[in-house]
Structure formats: structure tokens, C-alpha cells
Write a structure and sequence with these properties.
The complex is a heterodimer of chains A (114) and B (112). Chain A has 114 residues and is mainly beta. Chain A is built from no helices and 11 strands. In chain A, strand 7 and strand 8 form a beta hairpin. Chain B contains no helices and 11 strands. In chain B, strands 2, 4, 5, 9, 10 and 11 form a 6-stranded mixed beta sheet that branches. A 5-stranded antiparallel beta sheet of chain B has the order 1-3-8-7-6, with no helix packed on it. The chains are: A mainly beta (114), B mainly beta (112).
Chain lengths: 114, 112
């Protein structure tokens, strides 16, 4: 069975550009969460979506947005990229909103902003 | 003060050693606690949940101390394959859903 898949795996952008990251959850999972992991730090929560509705938002600026599609896949969009946005962006899926802590992470999209 | 704090390490231990990590959290309303393992340049994977009564899974033991607001992870008989970064995670403070707040991670290096 396929796990959480993310694309692209690596990308390089310049300051001011826009990026779209994509995530497909495990089949049957309806919840998708996005995390940002800066090198040397733990993952930081950005968004959670369940049944296409935003269920949680972390402390990130409005340049960050996301959505979930009817097939439960999700996109994370970041506008007006800054150097500090360089990080590993992790998508995690889970079966519901109940906080079991059982998040299944994808391998991430590694973004470098020059 | 960070919401979830860990000693970044690295902890360098020989094979067979016992090593313990602590993680402190700031919000006494936190309900759920977890340890994740992250290998270099890989995604985090759930190692174990932490229950109030403590729980054990093979060589790994996790404990929760609500009064002092910390969780611990004990690894006995360390293996080379245990080398990784260990992340503690706490459920989002007061919210529903799967918002986890992670510590910065503790790096473990097990040497032959």
C-alpha cells in the first residue's frame, strides 16, 4: 500500500516567488496536516485539514495557505518566498481528527529559497 | 520559553548502554504525549505514545510526569540502529485534531 506521497521532493526558488507543494494521503485517511521543519529543529505545525475544512492553523503568516480536495489530497501554497522559508515541508495524514498522535508523514518536500 | 523543550544532544553512547531522554512541556492542559523517531534526512515516525501509567515496548520505556510536566524515554541495550533523532510531541494545547507541538529533538549516536 502506498504511504503518504509528496511532490516535488526537492525544489529551488528565489525570493519573492511562489511555490505549491502537493500531498496525497494514505488511502482511507481523511485528515492532512502540514508541518515545516527547519534544519536542526523539530517540525512546526502549519495547517490541518479534515473533510476539506481547515481544522487548525499554526503561527504562520498569511503568505501560507492550503486546501484539501474532494479526494483528500492537499496543496500547500507559499507566496512571496523569503530566505527563511527554506525548510523541509512535511505532510502527514491520519484517519480522523481524534488526536491519537498517529501521524503518518511523507518524505517531505525540501525547499531552498535563494 | 519554548512550549516543548528537549536537550539537543548529541548523546554518544556505546552499544549496550542505557540512555534516557527528557522532554519538558509548558502547558499543563496538554493531554497527549508521544515520542517520534527521525532518521537523518527522513520523515518522523511514531515510536510510541506515552501514557500516564507509563508504557514499555521492548527495549523502550516511556513515562509521563504530569506534576513536573515532563516525559521521558529510556532505551535499554542500545543498538547501532537506534542512532537517530528522537522527537517528543505534545498535542495542540486545548485544540482538537492532530496538531502536535514537537520539541527540537535529541540526537542519539550509538557507537560500536
Amino acid at each position: 500500500d502506498a504511504g503518504v506521497t509528496q511532490s516535488p521532493t526537492h525544489l529551488i526558488k528565489t525570493r519573492g516567488q511562489h511555490v505549491t507543494l502537493r500531498c496525497s494521503p494514505i488511502s482511507g485517511h481523511k485528515s492532512v496536516s502540514w508541518y515545516q521543519q527547519v534544519l536542526g529543529q523539530g517540525p512546526q505545525f502549519i495547517f490541518q485539514y479534515y473533510e476539506k475544512e481547515e481544522r487548525g492553523r499554526g503561527n504562520f503568516p498569511d503568505r501560507f495557505s492550503a486546501r484539501q480536495f474532494p479526494n483528500y489530497s492537499s496543496e500547500l501554497n507559499v507566496n512571496a518566498l523569503l530566505l527563511g522559508d527554506s525548510a523541509l515541508y512535511l505532510c502527514a495524514s491520519s484517519s480522523g481528527t481524534v488526536n491519537t498522535g498517529e501521524l503518518f508523514f511523507g518524505e517531505g518536500s525540501r525547499l531552498t529559497v535563494l | 520559553r519554548k512550549e516543548v523543550e528537549q536537550d539537543p544532544g548529541p548523546f554518544n553512547v556505546p552499544e549496550g548502554a542505557t540512555v534516557a531522554f527528557n522532554c519538558t512541556y509548558s502547558n499543563s492542559a496538554s493531554q497527549s504525549f508521544f515520542w517520534y523517531r527521525q532518521d537523518c534526512r527522513k520523515e518522523p515516525k511514531l515510536l510510541m505514545s506515552v501514557y500516564s501509567s507509563g508504557n514499555e515496548d521492548g527495549r523502550f520505556t516511556a513515562q509521563l510526569n504530569r506534576a513536573s510536566q515532563y516525559i521521558s524515554l529510556l532505551i535499554r541495550d542500545s543498538k547501532l540502529s537506534d542512532s537517530a533523532t528522537y522527537l517528543c510531541a505534545v498535542n495542540g494545547f486545548g485544540n482538537a485534531g492532530n496538531m502536535l507541538t514537537f520539541g527540537g529533538g535529541t540526537r542519539l549516536m550509538v557507537k560500536p
